[in-house]
Structure formats: C-alpha cells, structure tokens
Amino acid sequence: MHLPPHAIRPDYAGGSVLNLAATLGAHHGVPSLHAPYRHPLPLDGARHIVLIVVDALGAGQLRDAVTRGDAPTLAALTPAPGAVTSVFPSTTMAALTTLHTARAPAEHGYLGLTVWLDEAQAVVNLIRLYDVYTHAPLEDAGFLAAVPSLYRQLHDRGVAAHVVMPAAYQHSVLTRWACDGAGYHPYAQPEETPELTAATLQPGQPSYTLVYFPDYDLICHGSGPDSPEAHAELRRTDRIVADLLAALPRNGDTLVVLTADHGQSPQPPDGYVDAITKKVMKTALRGPVAGEERAAYLRPQPGHHAEIAALLAPHATLLTADDAWTGGLFGPPAHADPRFRPRVGDLIAVPHPGHAIRRPTSPAPMLGLHGGWTAEEMLVPVLSVRV
Predict the structure, then answer these.
(1) Which among 180, 365, 141 is positioned nearest to 271, based on CA atoms?
(2) 72, 73, 74, 76 alpha-carbon torsion, rounded to 10°
(3) Which region holds residue 158: left if phi is over 0, alpha if psi is between -120 and 50, else beta?
(4) How many whole angstroms separate alpha carbon 354 and alpha carbon 92?
(5) What is d(CA 86, CA 381) in angstroms, rounded to the nearest whole number?
(6) Could you tell me which residues come within 8 angstroms of residue 211 by beta carbon, excluding any fewer than 6 positions away?
C-alpha cells in the first residue's frame, strides 16, 4: 500500500490512541490485544485514572496555542516525548469509539460518520442512524454493538468506571453501547465538569473516568481551527482543565491524561471538489458516497471503476479498500473483523491537502475538516500529570 509523502499512517504498533487506551485499561487489569503504548506514563501506584479528551485538538493546534499563550495549563503538563497518532479515518466516530473500547476501527466497526451497512443495505449515518439517501431510520441498530466497551470490562473487574459527557449524548445508541458499564455524569455546560469529575474519585475503589469536551471540534468545523472563535474556545477549555485539576483530591494516586481523538485542518471553501454529482452517483456508483469529506468510501458499479478513478485522481490519493484493509490502515490485520470490510466500499479516496470531496448528501461546506492523513488531522497530543 503506497501512501503519499505527506501521509501519516496510524501507529498501531505503540504510538496511537488505540495503544494509549489499551495501556490505561491494562493498568486496571483489562487484557489487551494490542501493543502497549510506547511512551512512559507515571502509572505506578495509580488507583485512579482520569482521561480527558478534547475533540479535535491536534498536536499542532496545541503547539500554536501554547506559543500564543492561550493554554498555560496544558503547557504545564508533561507531553509525550514522541508523536502520537489518531486512527484512520481521523474522525470522531472511529477514534472516540477506539478510546471507549480500546479496539481499532477494524474491530469495533465504526469506520466513519457514514458507512455502507450490509445489514441495512444502505449507507447509514452512524450518529443519527438513518439512511443518508432516503433518511429512513435504521430500525434495529443492536448489531452495531460489536465489542464490549472498556468500561464494562473495567466494571467486571471491580474498577469503578465513569464518563463525564454532555447530557445531550446520554441516551444515544452509540453511548449506550460504547459507555456500557460506566456511570454517566451528564453536564449542560463544560464548566460543570470539575465538580462532576472530582466526585467520581472515591478512596475505597480504583476508578477510571473519561471526560469529553466536544465544543472545540464544533467551533473548528464552523469557523476554522485558526479562527478567533476556535482560539477563544481553547482558552476556555484550558481554564476548565485548570479548575478540574484543582478540584481533584491531592493524594498522589491519580493519573490525569489529556489527549484528542484527532486534529483539524483548515478547509478553504474553494477546495471542495464537486466530482460526485447526482448523475454520477446514479449511473456510476452502487449507492451514495460514504465516509468523510476527507476520506471517502465509494462503491463503483461494475465497469465504472476507471471512470470514478479518473474523476477523483486529480484531487485525491486513491487506493482499493482491500489494500487499505490488509495493509493495516484501519487496524492491525490480525485483529480486523471481516464482517466490517464491506463498510468501507471498494475504492477509498483521500483528498490532497486543502481539498475535500463534496457529494449530494454532504452537509453545508465547513471551514475545518478532519478524516484524512495529514499531520494536522492525524497527530494528537498526550499530556499527563500525577495528582
């Protein structure tokens, strides 16, 4: 599998968020199928683990924020001494589910915002659970719960598991599966998270708590990761993290780790590519394009593969889904679940930097995107501190 020089491959051998989640779970006795996280963490003697996930906070974005003086709290934490990657595609559905399960996308099956589901014979939005073409709801989504959550495994080993997340997400199908086994502590405003998080650390039982901040990602999408609005939201997040650290008991037995599911890259409005029109979709494809604007999954009709490739080749790197699957892009092949291979189509198009594939089912153009394999999208921070 040949990738372009700018592409960052997921480092499932020890330097990805998959390995981070697996190692944190293993500290509390959960067996792992994957290589341990290669960078040192002060885990010895830690009874409590707090994992903070700031959606879309790429390593480069954090570095720039520290330079601007926007993140003094995060700047004071200990960074990983080497690069850490997201998964592929570098998107929330794939990467956050990996952090909830300690499994690669090829194992848990959440391989993008939208995927082809053989079970529904449709391209389905995995957040809202509807056919992206007809908007018909997915009636039975139980089959999507493919692996046990990390929290269920922790709970079964006597570890108190918790998630501190927005109230709006509490009852979704994905949350009910991916957070199974965890106490759900909902918040209306992120400023509530310090008190909620501190309350999850009780002296009599080891614990594992994930705290999730989604707002930075939403603002980066709408205004761009280099916008004043994104900078202001990161300053707000830094202040909340400072308050969270101050609220925790100072017993020396808590490890706090901060990371992200992926980064974001600025998306110029004129970089959107309109190659997949309604006519092309109806004549040359077996259904709508799936995946992401920055990592598209296509299912060409027999005899139309070359036509689709010719439309997209000037704008994107193309690879067959078989090569991506066996080449380990979605996770170590030895652990990949073959049931999920059809979800990524037959042809994968990863747009060149600054480009995005727009299609008839796309949302309105956004000024920040992720999903691809640039450094902006793939490299994430891992910061830690013992308190």
Answers:
(1) 365
(2) 80
(3) left
(4) 20
(5) 10
(6) 50, 51, 52, 53, 163, 164, 165, 193, 197, 244
pLDDT tens for 134-179 read: 999 998 999 999 999 999 999 999 999 999 999 999 999 999 999 9
Q: Is 209 helix (H, G, I), strand (E, B) or coil?
A: strand
The strand pair at 272-273 and 368-369 is best described as unpaired
Residues 6 or more apart whose Cβ sits within 8 Å of residue 102: 18, 21, 22, 25, 30, 32, 34, 150
CA angle at 328 for the pair 326 and 329, rounded to the nearest 5° = 115
Query: 38 φ, ψ to 5°?
Result: -80, -20
How many angstroms separate the CA atoms of 2 and 317, rounded? 10
DSSP string covering 88-135 = SSBSHHHHHHHHHHS--HHHH---SSEEEETTTTEEEETTTTEETTT-
Give the per-residue pLDDT at 360: 72
**Per-state percent for the chain, helix, strand, coil, to nearest 5:** 35, 20, 45
Helix 228-247 and helix 215-223: axis angle, to 10°? 170
Task: Please give the DSSP secondary-structure letter assigned to residue 318.
Answer: E
Cβ–Cβ < 8 Å for 371, 349? no
The whole-angstrom distance between residue 180's C-alpha and the CA centroid of its chain comes to 18
Mean pLDDT in residue range 25-44: 97
Buried b (16+ CB within 10 A) or exposed e, 140-150: ebeebbbbbbb
Measure the CA–CA gap between 318 and 350, rounded to whole angstroms. Answer: 7
pLDDT in tens, 264-312: 999 999 999 999 888 898 999 999 999 999 999 999 999 999 999 999 9
What residues contact 288, with CB distance under 8 A and at least 6 apart? 114, 123, 132, 133, 281, 359, 360, 361
Q: In terms of Cα–Cα distance, which of 34, 311, 267 is closest to 147?
A: 34
Question: Please, are residues 126 and 116 in contact by the beta-carbon 8 Å criterion?
Answer: no
Quote the CA–CA distance of 174 and 125 in Å, as a whole number. 12
Q: Which strands, in side-by-side order, build the sheet including 183-187?
A: 78-79, 382-386, 254-259, 48-54, 207-213, 160-166, 183-187
- Is 385 exposed, middle or buried (CB count within 10 Å of its CB: 0-12, 13-18, 19+)? middle
